[in-house]
Design brief:
By secondary structure, the protein is α/β, with parallel strands linked by helices. The protein is built from 12 helices and 20 strands. The strands form 5 sheets. It has a 7-stranded mixed beta sheet with strand order 3-2-1-4-18-19-20, with no helix packed on it. Strands 5, 6, 7, 8 and 17 form a 5-stranded mixed beta sheet that branches. Strand 15, helix 5 and strand 16 form a beta-alpha-beta unit. Helix 2 runs parallel beside helix 3 and helix 7 runs antiparallel to helix 8. It is globular and about 70 Å long.
Length: 363
């Protein structure tokens, strides 16, 4: 398409769960529902259109050993783009990826700064590793560096206990979350286990990543406080392998990880049924490849979430939660076109017909 060209998307445009239109126009890189007067250089794309997909938990610039170079980070972002994932919430990275903001051909990123973890209680080279007395200062730092989010490591294996355990005392997270909110940032936390959750939610946290430890007694608390979860089920699928690797040294932890994995679908369905907001995230980066959003949506459906709500969790609902537009009039034309209705079969998401980023067709 030339800069002056107009794109006509014809078929079904899924603006929202109750807002389905027959067409939209892309003019000057933005969405319009009015045919532009005098338009002549028109390209038509037919199919089912969705807002650009969202991965609400990924890591651009992060590899298995820590930060990666810019070329690798670019490949990660391009992989997401090619699968129609055009908005990323980067849930912690030691790399400076601000240069991506200057590239109109790469997905948009909402950063949570760098992970903040307890000393020797997380993956090496990933996080700031600190003690509770320094938590407020580091949260303030990352709140200023990020894009409205801060990421804590809420629990991790305690080698003395041989099992998952909370990383922070209650008073430390209360003060840290209050400071983040004062600075206009929301707070999320990595949490696998059960016993880290109550303190974080009662301290005012906004979101929990993974949330495999969510239990029936905690679900009403999450629902009452409006705390969202990002289950990352494609990552939870790795728990049995991790458990096998740690069996000899940490048998208690291994057994715990297997239990969390076994009830993962019940956990997610219980949260959904209670009205807890559930969003799509893959945990791509680190050890998982990028481009897994379609698989994660399919996992949410396998857990019992209706397809239309699983789609919402990676499209219009996720964008609203993150404060970014979908396919509203005048919004940047970030959208994906499919051959068939993804509400009928979410597996369609794995094969986009066309991807548009800032109004340009990705070849």
């Amino acid at each position: 398409m030339s800069d002056g060209a107009v794109l006509h998307v014809k078929g079904r445009v899924l603006v929202g769960p109750d807002d389905v239109r027959d067409e939209l126009w892309v003019v000057g890189g933005r969405v319009s529902y009015d045919r532009p007067a005098g338009a002549r250089d028109i390209t038509t794309v037919e199919g089912w259109a969705l807002p650009g997909l969202v991965d609400a938990h990924c890591h651009v610039g992060l590899g298995a050993e820590g930060p990666v170079d810019a070329d690798t980070a670019e490949k990660q972002a391009l992989t997401d783009r090619e699968t129609g994932t055009l908005l990323l919430r980067d849930a912690g990275s030691p790399s400076d990826t601000r240069w991506i903001d200057d590239r109109e051909d790469l997905p948009k990123i909402i950063r949570a700064g760098r992970h903040i973890a307890r000393t020797r209680r997380y993956i090496r080279n990933y996080a700031w590793e600190i003690e509770p007395d320094d938590l407020v200062a580091h949260v303030a730092r990352e709140a200023r560096r990020g894009d409205g989010w801060v990421k804590l490591v809420g629990d991790w294996i305690d080698r003395d206990l041989g099992d998952l355990a909370p990383c922070w005392p209650r008073e430390a997270v209360e003060a840290a979350i209050a400071e983040a909110h004062r600075l206009g940032a929301r707070v999320t936390a990595h949490c696998f286990a059960e016993n880290s959750l109550r303190d974080l939610v009662e301290a005012g946290i906004d979101c929990i990543e993974h949330a495999t430890g969510l239990t029936e007694d905690l679900i009403p608390l999450f629902a009452e406080r409006g705390v969202a979860i990002v289950p990352t089920l494609v990552n939870i699928a790795t728990f049995p392998r991790l458990a096998d690797g740690g069996e000899k040294k940490f048998p208690r932890w291994s057994a715990h990880m297997r239990r969390l994995h076994e009830r993962r679908y019940d956990t997610v369905r219980g949260a959904y049924d209670a009205g807890i907001p559930v969003f799509v995230g893959t945990d791509a980066g680190g050890t998982l490849p990028h481009g897994l959003v379609a698989e994660e949506v399919a996992e949410l459906v396998a857990a019992g979430i209706p397809p239309v709500d699983a789609l919402a969790a990676t499209s219009w609902a996720a964008r609203a939660w993150l404060g970014r537009p979908g396919l509203e009039e005048g919004a940047p034309a970030d959208l994906v076109v499919y051959e068939a209705d993804p509400r009928a079969d979410v597996r369609v998401l794995a094969a986009p017909r066309r991807v548009l980023l800032n109004g340009r067709v990705v070849e």
